[in-house]
Structure formats: C-alpha cells, structure tokens
Design a protein that fits this description.
The protein is about 30% helix and about 20% strand. By secondary structure, it is an alpha+beta fold. The strands form four sheets. It has a six-stranded antiparallel β-sheet. Helix 5 packs across helix 6. The longest helix is centred in the middle third of the chain and has 23 residues.
Length: about 325
C-alpha cells in the first residue's frame, strides 16, 4: 500500500494509533473511477445514490518506481513516499462481507411504478441499526483491466521484476525465472479471462434488454437501479491504461447512513468520508522507503520498531530505484 510517511506515522504512533481507512469512491482523484464498466453498458452513475462504495488500493508490486512517483509524495518531493507490505492475515476470505446487506436493506427504497394515471411515490424506511463501529476482515480482489474500444482484458498480478527485487541476494536468475514461470502458470490467467469475457458479454446483453424493456422504462429510477446492480464489479474494473499499477482492492459497499462511516469533524475535511478497518502494525511484513524518502523518516521507524523488541522483525528497505 503506497502512502505518505505522515500516514504511516499516524498508523504507528504511540498508544493511540489510527486505524487503516477505506475511502469513499466519490472523492477519488481519478474522475473515471467506477465508470469504465457503466459507460460500456450505456448506463449512468448517480452521485446522489445513497448506496456508497469505499475502497483501499494495494499493488502486487511492492517496490515500483512508477508507484513511488505517483503516490505518497510529501513536500512536493517525487519518490518521498513509503510502501507498506502487509501479510495475508490483514485480509479476510468471506466475500459476502464486502457488501453490508443488513444496513442497505434496512434503508430500502419502496417504489410504486407509474401505471395508467397513478402517481409515482417513493418512501424511505429509516430503521436504526446499532453498530460496533468496526469492520470484519475484508477480502482482497484483483482489479480487471479493460479497454472498451478494443476488448482487451488483463488481470492484476505481480510483475517479473518484483521476483528479482525480492530474491536478488538469495537466488540465482535461473531459480527466480523458475519461480516466475510457476507463478504465471498457477494464475491460469487465459482461462480466467475467457470466462470473464463470457460473463461480461452476458451482462451487456442483459442490461440492454432491461434498458429497452417498455414496461421497465416506466420505472423512473431504472438507470439508477441498473448501475447499483453492477456496482460490486464496477469497483474492480479499471481502464487498461492503468495496467502497470497491478492494483488489487479491498471494497466495502454500504448505505450512506452506516454508523461505520466516519464523518468529518471540521469544515476543511468535508470532502472526506471513510470507514475505519483495523490497526495495522501486527500485519506489516516490510516497509519500503521511496528513493527520495527523508532520512529522518527511516530513523524514526528504526527507533519505533527497535524499542518494541518484536518477535517478528519488520524490515525497512530503502528503494534503490533510479529516480531522475
């Protein structure tokens, strides 16, 4: 997870560290976020929709020059960020927890369709739900890279260089190549892509049929309902132009009234909504310091981890990527 040293400091500091956050998609920097799939399906996203998606982004490549260029920079210094490598225990396996069906269904929208001279009416049930203000372990999903113009599809995965960077002092090039080949074969990407392509074509056909159904067109919010139907997968489909990021995501889809959503406490933070996940220190394997990460940040981290005398050491690795 590429981020600023200040964020890492907040996640580790003292007796009351911050929890890892999933941020609301509405305020993401990428204006095309969540729109690659819906645009291809000819349905519109609705910013006023009360069902919201929150996500956290990760990369399969832990020491990537391009990622250090793009993310986590402080004081306008390119490459000054950090990359946090989490172990698998940070993530869950239950995909059903990615969608908070309980809170969504409790705030259900009832609609009476307009037939003949009947007036369309919308009512929202507000049911109070008590929340423990904590999330279950959430699963991690590979992003799918898609070019709607050409039909190109690819899955996020590690790149070959990451194998060399990880094993450069321990294994021969031949051994690393062998590990890479085994990894690629285990992914069985071509078979997965074939199945995904078939599913996407079926979804496109079904959405077209629903959009053009004369009876369904009488539902005034049909477009909104269709965009909601594909929301869980639209969160995971990015344009093929971003393929080199090899991104994977943790997602949480819920109603805007969810008590887990942290609301801003000051006016300057009004463009930020997030949900808290968990404390991170026990789940960190390595921390990679960007090529221009400040020396004081490394010293602070060394001091922090050495004082704790942990049984399992968290390695601090300075990136040697040639940043110009």
């Amino acid at each position: 997870h590429y981020t600023k040293p200040a964020v890492l400091f907040s996640l580790l500091k003292g007796e009351s560290p911050s929890k890892f956050r999933l941020n609301i998609v509405d305020f993401m920097n990428d204006p095309s976020e969540n729109q690659v799939l819906t645009s291809w399906l000819n349905i519109s996203n609705h910013p006023d929709n009360e069902i919201k998606s929150f996500l956290a982004s990760f990369s399969f490549n832990h020491n990537c020059l391009n990622q250090f260029r793009l993310y986590g920079n402080e004081d306008n210094i390119v490459g000054s960020g950090v990359s946090i490598a989490f172990n698998k225990n940070f993530f869950g396996l239950d995909t059903q927890r990615s969608i908070n069906n309980e809170i969504i269904s409790s705030h259900s929208i009832k609609s009476i369709k307009s037939f003949e001279n009947k007036q369309v009416k919308f009512e929202t049930e507000q049911i109070e739900i008590k929340s423990a203000n904590t999330l279950y372990p959430l699963p991690l999903y590979r992003c799918l890279y898609f070019d709607p113009e050409t039909g190109y599809l690819a899955l996020a995965k590690r790149n070959k260089q990451s194998f060399y960077l990880e094993n450069k002092n321990e294994k021969t090039a031949k051994a690393i190549d062998s590990e890479w080949d085994e990894y690629i074969n285990s992914l069985n990407e071509s078979d997965k892509i074939s199945k995904i392509r078939t599913k996407l074509e079926a979804i496109q056909k079904l959405i077209a049929e629903l959009s053009n159904n004369s009876e369904l067109k009488k539902i005034s919010n049909l477009d909104e309902l269709l965009s909601l139907a594909v929301l869980p997968i639209s969160c995971l489909i990015k344009h093929a132009a971003f393929e080199d990021e090899d991104e994977c995501r943790m997602i949480y889809i819920t109603h805007i009234a969810d008590d887990n959503i942290v609301e801003p406490q000051d006016y300057q933070s009004a463009n930020s909504l997030y949900v808290e996940y968990t404390h991170v220190e026990e789940y960190i394997d390595n921390i990679y310091l960007g090529p221009q990460c400040k020396m004081q940040h490394k010293i602070w981290l060394q001091n922090h981890f050495k004082k704790k005398r942990r049984e399992r050491e968290i390695k601090l690795i300075k990136s040697e990527m040639p940043l110009r």
